[in-house]
Amino acid sequence: MNVWLDDPTPRIESVFRRIGRESFADIDLCNRALEVRAVGFAPREHGWSGIVITPWFLNLMLFPSTSAWQHLGVGERRILELPAGSFEVLGGEDGELGEYAYCPMFSTMSLFESQREAVEVAEELIRQLTDPVTADVVRQRNPTGLQWNAPPAESTVEFHPARRDFLRGRAAAAGCANGE
Question: How far is CA 96 from CA 24, 30, 137, in A?
Answer without folding.
Answer: 18, 23, 36
